[in-house]
Amino acid sequence: FAVGDHVLHGLGWREIADMPAKHAVKVDPDIAPLSAYLGVLGMPGLTAYAGLFEVASFKEGDAVFVSGAAGAVGSQVGQLAKLKGASRVIGSAGSDEKVKLL
Fold first, then answer.
1. How confident is the model at residue 101 (pLDDT cuts 50, 70, 90)?
2. What does the DSSP assignment read for 29-83?
3. Domain ranges of the chain
4. How confident is the model over 2-43, as pLDDT tens digits?
5. Is 4 helix (H, G, I), strand (E, B) or coil?
6. Are 7 and 26 in contact (CB under 8 A)?
7. Are strands 25-26 and 7-8 parallel, antiparallel or unpaired?
8. Residue 102, pLDDT score
9. Of 59, 56, 63, whose CA–CA distance to 90 is shortest?
């Protein structure tokens, strides 16, 4: 990597990280805004995708219940399910304030 490159890795948000290069992936701000790599193109989005399609084997027409639906991963699971044709998406959240976000 070159000085100034933006990368994703498992050590959390930081300006400098010391690790083997194989544990980091360079991201391209020309493809998507850098903020997208913290959400839909980062851990929350990939976790939501893998959970819904690989683990739960979601199919069009399925009804989906999302626990923690107001969180980073849960909110994306709900959106993906709706976009991919869920018959119904039901979400729960831990507080009245979070329920208002749904």
1. confident
2. TTTS-GGGGGTTTSHHHHHHHIIIIIIS---TT-EEEETTTTSHHHHHHHHHHHH
3. 1-38, 40-102
4. 988 999 898 888 888 899 999 999 999 999 999 898 888 888
5. coil
6. yes
7. antiparallel
8. 87
9. 63
Q: Residue 1, CB half-sphere, CA atoms under 13 Å: how many?
A: 20
35 neighbors 15 (Cβ within 8 angstroms)? no
Query: Which pair of structure tokens corresponds to residue 18?
Result: 């010391």
Q: What is the pTM of this model?
A: 0.78
**Which residues are CB-neighbours of 37 under 8 A, at least 6 positions away?**
6, 8, 27
CATH topology (fold) of 40-102: Rossmann fold (3.40.50)
Query: In a 10 Å sphere around its CB, with 0-12 CB exposed, 13-18 middle and 19+ buried, how is residue 47 labelled?
Result: middle
